[in-house]
Specification:
The protein has 347 residues and is mainly beta. The protein has a single domain, classed as 5 Propeller (Tachylectin-2, Chain A), CATH 2.115.10. The protein contains no helices and 23 strands.
Length: 347
């Protein structure tokens, strides 16, 4: 079997400096990550802590026929990032021809499972269905696996895990969430529909709900794509992107619930365009560090750049109010301060 040889290329972080005063009143500069975090057009970033290291797995933001691989980036401190080129590509995922999108990473039994969407799957008879173009309608959500977050990854199934539409949800933008009882859930869906399903122990299929169904729709008001979930203080935070990904209407909203299945009622918007910083901010993920610092990792479009695929990966702090609600995120050029990892943590 052909395998990709992973190449790790040091990336010079776009470090910003900001001033503060020390106890004796002298001016000091504190290095920050800077935004964007690394060079290149990258979107839909999945952030995680794996093996005491920060990882970001983004979409390579380009024309669909150029999206035939995924890169990854790692850091020990959020400041300096290392690029891992082509952790997977179409030489390994034989059924993927284009549009490899929105990776989601999770560790299980000392192996790393990388979920992704490919081929921009279309529904037979739908508005974008083209019977003459197999690339344009066969695809869906796939799974790759490796013994190291940097790869090399191999195709876990040799075919999509979810190739069909269920409840109107395009099989894209998957996120895998491990609950406290060690049940693994997948949230996914485009075209303004979101499903939740329970993954089986091998990640090669799903466990039915009590009513016999496999995919349960949980679409909240305003949902378009890009689902994400985490738990804080016993509350389940479900987040998603709204608006159009090609313009400045793109934004992130969220809901809170007492259980993983909801119901999810929209609380509000927490990330959106800022005319002084960037537009098209969305499709995010959240990192919770061992020192109880919360971060939001997301993509945005630099101003005045308006290219459809000209998106960059950024990070800023995520703050909560006393009642648990999420404060609106202030996008910055500075990014976040150095935060070194020294103890084990999870996604």
């Amino acid at each position: 079997m052909f395998r990709i040889v992973n190449t790790c290329i040091p990336v010079v972080a776009l470090i910003a400096l900001f001033g503060c005063k020390s106890e004796n009143g002298s001016e000091q500069t504190i290095p920050t990550s800077g935004n964007p975090l690394f060079e290149g057009w990258y979107a839909d970033p999945e952030g995680a802590i794996l093996d005491d290291t920060y990882w970001i797995f983004p979409t390579y933001s380009a024309a669909y026929d150029q999206q035939i691989f995924l890169d990854a980036f790692s850091s020990k401190d959020l400041i300096s990032w290392e690029k891992h080129s082509h952790v997977i590509d179409t030489s390994v995922i034989k059924w993927a021809k284009q549009a490899i999108w929105a990776p989601a990473i999770i560790e299980k039994n000392d192996r790393y499972f990388l979920f992704f969407s490919a081929n921009d799957a279309q529904q037979p008879g739908g508005p974008y269905w083209d019977e003459t173009n197999t690339i344009n309608h066969y695809g869906g959500i796939g799974v790759a696996v490796a013994d190291d977050p940097a790869g090399p990854y191999e195709d876990w199934l040799g075919k999509p895990l979810i190739p069909e539409f269920h409840n109107g949800a395009q099989p894209i933008d998957q996120f895998v969430f491990k609950d406290a009882d060690s049940t693994y859930y997948m949230f996914y869906g485009g075209w303004s529909h979101c499903n939740i399903a329970k993954l089986n122990s091998n990640f090669d299929g799903f466990i039915s709900w009590d009513d016999g169904t496999t995919f349960r729709e949980i679409t909240p008001e305003g949902y378009v794509e890009g689902p994400f979930m985490f738990v804080k203080d016993g509350k389940y935070y479900f987040m998603w992107s709204e608006g159009g990904w090609t313009n400045d209407t793109y934004k992130v909203a969220y809901a809170m619930a007492d259980q993983v299945t909801g119901p999810f009622t929209k609380v509000g918007t927490i990330l959106q365009s800022d005319a002084e910083i960037a537009t098209g901010a969305g499709h995010h993920s959240v990192i919770h560090s061992p020192d109880d610092t919360w971060y939001i990792v997301y993509h945005r479009r630099p101003i005045p750049n308006e290219g459809r695929d000209h998106r960059v990966t950024c990070i800023d702090r995520l703050y909560f109010n006393d009642d648990g609600t999420v404060q609106p995120v202030k996008m910055t050029f500075e990014g976040v301060a150095k935060n070194e990892l020294s103890s084990e943590s999870d996604h």
